[in-house]
Amino acid sequence: MSPTTVIATLRLFLHDCLLPNDCDASILLSSIAFSKVERNANINHSLPSDTFDLIIRAKAALELSCPNTISCSNILFDATCDLLTMLGGPFFLVFLGRCNGQTSLAFAVSSHLSTPSMPISQITQLFAKCGFTVEEFVALSGAHTIEFSHCFEFVTNLSNNTSSSYNPRYAQGLQKACADYKTNPTLSVFNDIMTSNKFYNAYL
After folding, report:
1. Which of 15, 45, 112, 150 is catalytic?
2. 112 is catalytic
3. Distance (Å, rounded) from C-alpha 138 to C-alpha 127?
4. What are the domain boundaries of the chain?
5. With respect to CATH, is domain 3-112 assigned 1.10.520.10?
6. R_g of the chain, CA atoms, integer Å
7. 192: annotated binding-site residue?
8. Rounded to two decimals, what is the model's pTM?
9. What is the pLDDT of residues 38-81, one digit of tens each?
């Protein structure tokens, strides 16, 4: 299992669980005519499609062994716990018996998820509403402590070095690495060069 799969699964889980319907796998639902679902919200466009496929394949395999028993919500919850533990993240007890959500609305997503341009104070409040400590939200909002971040997600914060929160040398390095992000939207950089395969709350 690659670290990329771990971070993609974590992001999928986080984007599902921070919404009011609370970890119901409603992010897996597909759109129908005239109704966009959570996975079609702009902020979710960067979620890798193979992560959705991972959960669907697991569900299909379980249906062959024990039909109508394990929900996609349980699968996503359990898979996230196991994958995080593999990379040094915290273990948390998974209670089974969760049901899949039946409602999924794209317009309800943006107000519940953090963005690269959001002030720290606002992100803190967002995660505090869900019961997370500062240490926990730092690890989760910096989920890219594993693997990489896409340049287009943060490069506007580096324009003309307007952000005093960046170390000048680090900002220059990011600008150089992301110079061609407009022609190559997949361009990415490691946030944590030394321990890119370890989950914790220390990263650049």
Report:
1. 15
2. no
3. 10
4. 3-112, 120-190
5. yes
6. 18
7. yes
8. 0.73
9. 999 988 887 888 889 889 999 999 999 999 999 999 999 999 88
